[in-house]
Structures are given as C-alpha cells and as structure tokens.
Amino acid sequence: MEQIVAPQALAYVVNIDQAAGLIRKANRILVMGCSGGGKSTLSLEIAARFGFPYISIDRDVLWLPGWVERGREEQRAIVVAKVQGERWIMDGTNPSTFDARLPRTDLVIWVRMPRLLCIWGVVSRWIKWMGRTRPEMAPGCIEKVDWEFLRFIWTFEEKFTPRVLAGLAEHGPEVPVLQLKSRGEMRQLLDLLGRPA
C-alpha cells in the first residue's frame, strides 16, 4: 500500500506507523499548527524521547520579555542560525521563514486540530499558567488570552492555512508532512514512539 501521497504537490504521510519511523530517523523536525493545538507539548515529548534540542519560535525567536516582539531582521537572523544545527525539533508556524527552515527539515508535523479544541487549549493553558510564564514562552511573557488572540484562532484555517500550504509547496514540496487532526492521533503517534523500533 502506498504510504505517501502528494495532493497539492505536497508529500503527505498518510500512515502514523510510517510517520513514527520517519521521526526515529529524522535529525530535524518542524512542528506547526494553530495556537492551542498542542504543538509545543508534542514537540517537548518528542524532544525528550529522542534527545532533540527543542527550539520554540515563541520563546527563542519572536518574543522579548513583556510581550515585546523582536524586529523582523533579528527574528530571521536567529532562525537562520538555529536551523544550521545538526539536530533539532522546532515548533512554530509562521511561513515567512519557511525558505530558511524547510530546506533543513526532514519531516513536518502539522498539528491541525479543530478550532474549538484549539480555543479550549489556549483557555485551559491560560488557567493553568495564570499570572506566570510557561516554559515554552519567553521570560516575562505572562500567559494571556484576549479577543484578538481568540479571533486569530477562530479564523486560522481560513486566513492562515492558505499561506502555510503555499509556503510548503514553494519551499519544501518534497518534505514529508504528517497532519494530526485529533488528540487520538497524537496519542497514537506518541504511543508508537514509546515502543521499541
């Protein structure tokens, strides 16, 4: 049975068993998706199991303390430097740096959860970390939720996904892409990764 299909000129991985095998062989993995979908949690789990250095775009590239955004040129310079590493797992979706990230990526994991699940994810995360900064975020960026952020999540598929697809097709059409569309699929992948190869 064929395991990889290429709709929209992308190399989609359609079998979670195959994806687990690709993760075991990969040196560099990009995890992307809408906020609240679980990409940081998944990235940290995989990093711990396989000894990957973990790079968070939010923590390491985008934000300075107090929710101050770094300048675009500095962000890009940091990304370009970090992707030169021999091994890493990076979570972050912004397609503006796909031209630097995708050519160095062995596998993309697209955490593509339903928007209500993503909203629940950010609200529950805010409750858990209220008044504090979570480890995947830059120091001094106290966890917050506002209407603008919720609107971004609600409209992510319509507004942002076309840019993601275009970026993948332009800068990494040969990079395998696994889409995880439910918590069950995510658990299945982690269960497989926890078993001996």
Structure in words:
With 197 residues, the chain is an alpha/beta fold. It has one domain (9-194): 3-Layer(aba) Sandwich (Rossmann fold). Helix content is 47%, strand content 16%. It has helices spanning 16-25, 39-50, 57-62, 72-82, 98-101, 115-129, 147-154, 156-159, 161-171, 183-194; strands spanning 4-5, 11-13, 28-33, 54-56, 63-64, 68-69, 88-91, 107-111, 176-180. A seven-stranded mixed beta sheet has the order 1-2-9-8-3-7-4. Strands 5-6 form a two-stranded antiparallel ribbon. Strand 5 and strand 6 (68-69) form a beta hairpin. The protein is globular. The relative contact order is 0.22. The model is unreliable at 1-7 (pLDDT under 50).
Q: Structural class, from helix and strand content? A: alpha/beta
The major sheet is characterized as:
7 strands, mixed
CATH class assignment = Alpha Beta
Q: What value does the average pLDDT take? A: 92
Count of individual beta strands? 9
Helix content: 40-55%
**Poorly predicted ranges (pLDDT <50, ≥5 residues)?**
1-7
CATH architecture: 3-Layer(aba) Sandwich
Question: Which features does this protein show?
Answer:
alpha/beta, Rossmann fold, seven-stranded mixed β-sheet, two-stranded antiparallel ribbon
Task: Produce a short descriptive summary.
By secondary structure, the chain is α/β, with parallel strands linked by helices.
Layout of secondary structure:
Blueprint: E1 4-5, E2 11-13, H1 16-25, E3 28-33, H2 39-50, E4 54-56, H3 57-62, E5 63-64, E6 68-69, H4 72-82, E7 88-91, H5 98-101, E8 107-111, H6 115-129, H7 147-154, H8 156-159, H9 161-171, E9 176-180, H10 183-194
Parallel strand pairs: 2-9, 3-7, 3-8, 4-7, 8-9
Antiparallel strand pairs: 1-2, 5-6
Helix pairs in contact: 1-10, 2-10
